Amino acid sequence: MKPTIKKxxxxxxxLSLAGTLTACGNKQDNQDTAEQGTSAKEPQELSLVLxxxxxxxxxxxxxxxxQGYFKxxxxxxxxxxxxxxxxxxxxxxxxxVDAAISYETQVIQARSEDVPVISxxxxxxxxxxxxMVREESGINSPKDLAGKNVGYPAVPLDEYxxxxxxxxxxxxxxxxxxTDIGWDIIPSITGKQxxxxxxxxxxxxxxLLEKNxxxxxxxxxxxxxxxxxxxxxxxxxxxxxxxxxxxxxxxxRALGKGQAYVAAHKDEALNSLLAKQSTDFPLEExxxxxxxxxxxxxxxxxxxxxxxxxxxxxxxxxxxxxxxxIITNDVKxxxxxxxxxxx
Length: 343
Description:
Elements: H1 9-15, H2 18-38, E1 44-49, H3 59-66, H4 69-72, E2 75-80, H5 88-93, E3 99-102, H6 104-112, E4 117-124, E5 129-134, E6 149-152, H7 156-168, E7 177-180, H8 185-190, E8 196-201, H9 205-211, E9 216-220, E10 232-237, H10 238-264, H11 266-275, H12 285-299, H13 311-323, H14 333-336
Parallel strand pairs: 1-2, 1-3, 6-7, 6-8
Antiparallel strand pairs: 3-10, 4-10, 5-8, 5-9
Helix pairs in contact: 3-10, 3-11, 10-11, 11-12
């Protein structure tokens, strides 16, 4: 489900437009200030672009909208779907949207290339990405992938994940082959084009495979030496954070209330989500119900408020990505993330 992590050379072109966008933004800010002077109760407008089409992981957003939590915070939120899965973070970087759902690893990648984005909340606190093999494959743990053919969606980090898992499990990854399968994750394993896949999620592709009679074994990354990390985060541009920090803080508070509602009212939240589904990407109710059951504990911050981020989680992944030369420039965890929630 995650888009390919690419070098952000294209983003540099987009950033060249930022001056124009900022000028337009300043004009709009002045207009907003004038309007606030005449109507102090005018809601603050924020735009949010999702990482993908609406599905169970977004339930808390729609719950916050339907239960009036955005309204309670004097917010009017425009929820958008991306035209391309690689767009959200870039749009946030240049201020075309106020917030984007993205990935910790992509935020780190962007920061390493001086793209001015920052994570302001952790949404899914642990990896959803898993390595999957067919149940009858004879592969019982990652070490058995030595010399096998692993399909992956052209994400370099995924290849390093698999190699590390094999080595940490006592195998030799030297002769393991990696085949770029794009996002044809399900067809690649159902058609036995590869021996294993990475890039599919435990709350989506795995469920769909099982539903369609393809029984798989799934290996969690963090069970085999890969650092734990935040799968999904809420990101914004540095300039947006500076200009709209109070509104973004209110937004994160409302999202926390939405998540609490989902945890207490799973059926109602699911029905609300199904009503919001995209006609281009229809949802399967039973799959989304199972997905929500998987997601809720992975989104739970325990004794911390929803969205809380631990700087050490970022630093550990920064070190890992640098060790494997996914990034070559230094990245400070304190610059890649900032908490907008009160402990």
